[in-house]
Amino acid sequence: MAVHEITMKDQSVERIDGADAYAQEGPLTTFFRTDPDRRLIDRWSVRLASFRTADVTAVRRVEPPTGA
Fold it and tell me: pLDDT by residue (tens digit) across 13-50?
């Protein structure tokens, strides 16, 4: 499961576990968990977190290590 790290304007870093996608919704950047069979943001997607887009300076997707 992917993790997104969001760097904010004040240099703090927020971590969102389980988000498959993100999109801008008006003044907010919102992170979603989607259906595993569909990588679309639709009405069945679950909103996990939202941040003011003006406060976000970077978004980075971190994939888990492969193998065990």
Answer: 999 999 989 999 999 999 999 888 877 888 889 999 99
Token pair, residue 57, equals 């300076």
Q: Starting at the edge strand that comes first in sequence, how are the strands of the sheet with 28-33 ordered?
A: 21-25, 28-33, 46-52
Burial class (CB in 10 A: 0-12, 13-18, 19+), 4: buried
> Cβ atoms within 10 A of the Cβ of 16, count?
19
What's the CA gap between 60 and 8, in Å, rounded? 12
pTM for the whole structure = 0.84
